Each structure stands twice: as C-alpha cells, then as structure tokens.
Amino acid sequence: MRRPSSLAVRTTALCLAVAGVMALVAGGIAVRQVSTASREISQQTLSAEADVVAAQLAESPVAARRLNEILRGQGVEVVRRGEAGGLVGTDRTAVQAARRAGLARVTADQPLHGSARVDGSVLLVEGRTIDGQVAMALVGKVAIAEGAGRRLLNNVVFALAIGLLVAAGAGLLLARRLAGPLRRTAAVASAMSHGRRDLRVPPQGPRELVEVGESINTLANALAYSEARQREFLLSVSHELRTPLTAVTGFAESLADGVVTGDEVPEVGRVIGQEAERLNRLVSDLLDLARLGADDFRLDIADVDVVQLLAESAQVWHARCAAAGVTFSLESPGHPVPVRTDARRLRQVVDGLAENALRVTPAGAPIVLSLRYGPGFAVVEVRDGGPGLSAEDYARAFERGVLHSRYEGVRPVGTGIGLALVHGLVTRMGGRIEAGPAPEGGARFTVTLPLAPPGPDATQPLPR
Asked: What is the DSSP string of 171-185?
C-alpha cells in the first residue's frame, strides 16, 4: 500500500498550484489586454498613415515611388486598386491580405479598416480612395504590434518563477506551522494508547489545532479519571470477594483439620453455604454488569403481571425484614397490572433495590414496596426509612462504585455494582429509574415501565 504524502508536501504543492494558476491567469489576461491595446494603437497609426498617403498621392501622383520606399522601410506595403478593379502590389502576401480585407469595395464614403489572416499571420489593412476609381491600401504586419505583448509575456514568465519560489517558501512555513502541533498531538495520542496518562498537548498553533489539543487533553483527563474509578471499583470488588472466600477457606480448613466436630459441623456447613451463595451472587452481578452493553444480552420480553411479581417478592422480603427488625409493607392494587418486560430481570431489579434498602435501614424503620400506574405506564417504588442520600449523591447514585467509595466506613455498603446493574437492566428493558428522597425519611428508588398493550380480547382499560 502506498504511503500517503505528508502535510508539508501537500501544503507546499497546494501553494505552488494556487500561485501558478493565479500567475498564469493574470499573465494571460494582461497579455491579451496589452496585445489588444497594441493592435488598436497600430491600427490607428496605420489609419493615420493611410490618410496622409492618400492625400499626398492625390496631390502628386509622381511621389508614389518615394512613398513606397519610405513605407516599405517601416514594414508597410502599398497595394493599389486600378480602374478595372484589379489589385497591384510588390508583395504577394500584402495583395492577398488587401483582397481578403475588402479593398475592392472601398469607396470615398466607405474607407477600409480591417485585417486578414494570410499564411498563419494576421495583417492590418487600411484602405482609402485617391480618386473616384483608384484606391490604395496600406498593409502592415501584426508582428510590429505584438512586440510589447511578447515582452510582457517574458515578464509574466519571470514573475511566475518568482511567485512559485515565494509560494514554495510560504507553503513550507505554513506546513511547519501546521505540522508541528499536529505531530506533538499525534505523539501524545500515541503515548496515551500505550498507557501514558501524564502527558498533555501544549496549546500552540492556530485556533483549530488548539481545539484539537484541548480535546485530546480532555480525553486524557477523562481516561485518567475513568481508570482511577475502575481501580477503586476493582479494589472494592476484590475486598468483597475476599471476605466470603476467607470465611469459606477458614471453615473448610477447620473441618479438614478436625477442629470443628460433632454438633458444630452443620452450623459450619450452613455458614460455608451462605458465603458461597454470597460469592455466587457477586460473580453473577459482575457478569451481568459486564454483559449489559453487549448485543447478545438476552431479555425474554413478555406480558408480566407486576402485582403477582411483587407479591412473590414481598413474601421473601417480609421474612428477611422481620428477621432484621425492619417493618416491611406492600402497597399494590387489587387487580392485575400487565407490563411488557422480562419477569426474571424485573424480579432481579426489585430484589436488588430491596437488598440495598435493607442494608442501610435500621431496626424499627420501614421499607415499603409500592406499585401504582397511570396512562401507559406502571411505577414500582422501593422506599426506606434509612439515612438517605445527599442531593448530589441522588444524582450519581447509579454510577458504578460512587456510593461505595462515598459511604465506605460511614454506613453499611455493598460492592458498588448493585445500583449500576439495576440501572442498566431497567434501561435495557425500555424503562427508566430515578432516585430521590422518600416520605419515610430515607431514599426512594422509582422504576417506570411501559404497560402491556391491550390484547384483542381486552375491552376495558385498567381500573383507576
């Protein structure tokens, strides 16, 4: 594959091309104008000479030979028209030019001002009458009139050469001015692709190049921030993974060494099973979060009765809240509310929000699972009486690991992926989720989903 030319070469070539075209166009116009002006002046000069020669020949016919010699010395030929209409002259080319220009039609009232091309040369012709029947014409070569144009053409060629040299220098300077910042920007981008995050593009060069450099710097800052967040997230996940692994490893070693025996074995087995289940949920959440953006993330969309789904979920969370001393309640209509969604993923969303609420809700405070609906949508809410969040934290609640790093060591926190996973699931199911303060004093998470369209047998809308 042929390597493309550099910006310096292209810029220089463009400047040369522009300068060359401009010089050629300007020179062509100038040459044409000067040639036209010279031809007009020569025609006027030849016309004046024709008037003088015609007057002298009318007064003194014997002066014809002397006048012919003088005019021939100036490069002008004399052609006569006799009484019979024939043309006579010493130069065949001049006679032919006079004939083509129309000397035969010259009268006292209609002199001849013209030109004719003979053998590739243009000759100027001025015809006058001497008496009623005799006429004469002066024929001059256009080459006499084109001398100035030829000199101008030489000057244009010289100016073109100077212009091309200047354009080459200007192109090289411009290319260096453009290519320098671009090369620095490319070097920073290349270093970023190899993991460097400490380099920045200096704001130099034209405004557009400065804007490109600022964009690269913004990207570098965003990458540094994102990677820092990822490191924090990985550290928190590693900690969450290590906790159940440590418990499983410790109890397994106790069993293997015979430290735990007799009646203690069943309890140790239950602890190992609980920690293994916790570890399994964490790994599953990580896999789901990683796969959310993939095209092959599977959703089984169908008509789901949210009332029944929440009732099944409430049975589990009522028992878990009771064990923690937390009051649990379910607010739901007494009739089915069909929603077009994935039942398994919606249950995962509800359980994730409920687990997040139970983690921070103190004993004696409430947790409420609520369902309401409006025209075309259903709203599922999980509210708690916990400490809640700040207004800034509500706006960033679904960013991965933000609440974990913000509240670690202050209150019980999870892995930092639960709310991010819930947000991704709701979004993939075509809904939206929001966070805000709850009337119970803690946080409220609101999931809005579209209602299932009425089937062919449905004749009544949902009761209000």
From this structure: HHHHHHHHHHHHHHH
